[in-house]
Amino acid sequence: MTNYFVEGVTLFSIVLILAGLFSKTMRNSINWRAMSTPLSSIIGSGFIIIAPLLWVLVGKWSLFFLLGIILLSYQIGDVMRFNIVHSEPLIQSGKMLGTFKTLNKMSYFSLGIAYLVSIAFYIHILSAFSLSLFGIDDEVSKDIMSTVILLIIGILGYLRGIAHLEFIGRIAVNIKIALVCSVCIGVFTYSWNNLGFVHLTPPSEKVITFQSLCKIAGILLLVQGFETSRYLGDRYTTVLRVESMKYAQIFSSLIYIFFVWCMMFVLGDVTSVSETTIIDVLSRFSWLLPLVLVCGGVFSQMSSALADATGCSGLLSESVNNRIKMNQGYLLLSLVAIILIWTTNVLENVALASRLFAFYYLMQSLESLYIMLKYRQAFSIKRLIKFVFVALSMLFVCLFAQSAG
To answer: Which long-range contacts (CB under 8 A, 24 or more apart) does 359-363 make?
Structure first.
């Protein structure tokens, strides 16, 4: 069998998965609608670099460390789900006093800035990917296109509200999932035909050092985004947000595991990482897979930006006790993101955003510990140990995490 078989299987997979995701059952599923926002954010730009990055850092242990990252992120998700159930009623009742109020405000501040930087970053990368298809690679063109996209998001959000942007986001995330999964299936098929599922050996044996652990700590933030469910209270019930966050984490984890496992068969001689590493590797044996991955990257940036815009707007609305409505928040955050794009280096700001996300999770962990100990809500030794572990892990990320580049 030739590599035309790989292309054929990939195209068939795209059609089949899209048909399933756009089926009437999925379109009418409120659970899928609630899942789409956190899922959009979790499977962001990170999926393009996470496989080669782990391969370069830890080689054959990539899957083992990925499982560790996923398990830790799920524990962070447990903290967020605890706060949805137990923190929100206290916030809504106006009983935020002292330490609780301070932790909550610090959480809002750090997450708000991180969201704004992330939105600007996602749209900037989306513009870069899109313009590269036409051979355009100057910063002014990228900034102009980013501004237009952000204005469209802000105006649509203001005029039509969350439902309209969620609809666009669901389309983007459906296409993204279909493209990412089809790339996995294509690589799986190639490995089956040509490599016999034998992992290619890394160029050198990897020694796990403190520096590599610090870089792995930075990878944790590539799978963030599940916290967006926390700020969709105007649209979904508490139970649905808790369940949708949990299932979004599980579903995205399965995609990441399958993706990294498949890529380990073809990464062999890779010794450095860039945004195009996987594209370069895939182009060695397929003309279609790199194209599918680039398209997946474009839809990934769009869906992630919309998810973070929704989360940021909900955060803003909650932080001012709904004095600013979510539709007004879309317009405001779009304008701020435009200012960031024209006045700062968006790519350099990503390192700051990563630490702010870690700081946010740290504050959320401390908030959950405070509620559990102060108000004796859902107290258990097991939960206490878990939340302390998450807090210490996030403190480590804040202090020592290094750029994934």
So the answer is: 359/106, 359/110, 359/394, 359/398, 360/107, 360/110, 360/111, 360/114, 360/227, 361/76, 361/79, 361/224, 361/227, 361/390, 361/394, 362/391, 362/394, 362/395, 362/398, 363/103, 363/104, 363/106, 363/107, 363/110
Identify the helix (H) or strand (E) that includes residue 371: helix 346-374
- Cβ neighbors of 402 (< 8 A, separation 6 or more) are 211, 214, 215, 217, 218
SS3 at position 206: coil
Contact assessment for residue 178 and residue 17, using Cβ atoms and an 8 Å cutoff? yes
Locate the domains of the chain by residue range.
4-19+27-114+164-301+363-400
The number of CA neighbours under 13 Å toward the Cβ of 333 is: 35
**What SS3 class is residue 258?**
helix
Other Cβ atoms within 10 Å of 290 Cβ, number: 18
Q: For the chain, 405 residues long, give each residue's pLDDT as a single digit of tens.
A: 457 888 999 999 999 999 999 999 998 899 998 898 888 888 876 677 788 888 888 888 889 999 999 999 999 999 999 999 988 888 777 766 677 778 878 888 888 888 888 888 888 878 887 787 777 878 899 899 999 999 988 898 888 776 777 788 788 889 989 998 999 899 888 888 775 655 556 556 667 788 888 888 877 777 888 888 887 766 789 999 999 999 999 999 999 999 898 888 888 888 787 667 887 888 888 889 888 888 887 888 788 888 778 778 877 777 776 677 777 888 888 999 999 889 887 766 766 777 888 899 999 999 999 988 887 777 789 999 999 999 999 999 889 887 655
Residue pair 350/114 in contact by the 8 Å Cβ criterion: no
